[in-house]
Amino acid sequence: MEIVITEAENGKCLRDYLKKDLGMSRAELSHLKSLDTGIMINGVRVTVRAVLATGDVLFLDRDDAAAGGNVMPGDIPLDIIYEDGDIIALNKPAGMPTHPSHGHYYDTLANGLAFYFAKKSIPFVFRAVNRLDRDTSGIVLVAKNRASAYRISSEMSRGGIKKTYIAAAVGAVYQSGTVIANIKRRYESIIERTVCPENEGQYAETRYAPLYTDGKVTLLEVRPVTGRTHQIRVHMAYIGHPLCGDTLYGEESELIGRQALHCSRLEFTHPTTGERITLSAPLKGDMGRLCRRIGADIAGAV
């Protein structure tokens, strides 16, 4: 199993990532530590005390299916927006985890891709270049081979990959702006993040521009310069405009049953051709209905 480390995991202790993010048990950790190639970063064996960095390729020799190591194929509908011999990009629906973790071993995007490639008799290793929260919809880019994963993750670490989100925020926003505020994990919480002083946490920068407002809700184009966990959600709540439906940093909404956040565009350099690629994922389902209810032009929001 190979995982490309994103900015969201940058600076995390490997032990915490394996236990809290991947839901790995103490027994499985002990098993991996006993193997010569059990836990490796960028081809080098490491201990669980290693600190993760953006662009790292983490390899876990998880061959025991009973321990949840293999991504089991699952007949899950996939919305493929681009595919060639090196990469595949999908429009992930809300409610679907990106990769298996505790409590989600068979219902993830990775399971769906394992089934997709198994039908084609193509060997599959899940190498997601970017990952989205379970209840965030939009583009997920997956590398089909180790070389492509390395090149794209290297570009990400240099800030060369540009991500654009569409979000619906509470309140009226009439001007573009930039939020620069460090983010850290909230004390005693595994999930929740919070803004913190400059000498704490990690630097985080988010740029936003209003697309439409009805005075109560604003449809925004949001571009995270950095990629911290829950960054957009934390920053918008920090300036007094939490995302609609975000019950962790705001309140429930009659407009949508989850945080109103969709990764609509991804710009990157193709790992083989060197061509600059721009992918788009249209708003669908609940985000589309939200736009129609507030009178926003969906076509103009992507």
What's the quick description here?
The chain contains six helices and 16 strands. By secondary structure, it is of the alpha+beta class.
Which descriptors would you attach to this protein?
alpha+beta; Pseudouridine synthase; 10-stranded mixed beta sheet; 4-stranded antiparallel beta sheet; Structural Genomics Hypothetical 15.5 Kd Protein In mrcA-pckA Intergenic Region, Chain A; single chain
- Please report the first level of CATH classification, the CATH class of the domain at 162-301: Alpha Beta
Largest sheet: 10 strands, mixed
By CATH, the architecture of the domain at 162-301 is named: 2-Layer Sandwich
Class based on secondary structure composition and strand pairing: alpha+beta
* Count of extended strands: 16
What is the CATH third-level topology name of the domain at 162-301?
Pseudouridine synthase
Report helical residue fraction.
10-25%
The overall average pLDDT, rounded, is 90
* Element-by-element helix/strand order: EHHEEEEEHEEHEEEEEEHEEH
The backbone outline, from C-alpha atoms, is globular
Beta-strand fraction estimate = 25-35%
Low confidence ranges? 63-69
Rg (C-alpha, Å): 19 Å
Kindly, what is the distance between the CA atoms of the first and last residues, rounded to a whole number of angstroms?
34 Å
User: Which homologous superfamily in CATH is the superfamily of the domain at 162-301?
Assistant: Pseudouridine synthase
Q: Count helical runs.
A: 6
InterPro entries: PsdUridine_synth_cat_dom_sf, PsdUridine_synth_RluA-like_CS, PsdUridine_synth_RluC/D, PsdUridine_synth_RsuA/RluA, RluA_PseudoU_synthase
Family: Belongs to the pseudouridine synthase RluA family.
Catalytic activity: a uridine in RNA = a pseudouridine in RNA
Pfam family, one: PseudoU_synth_2
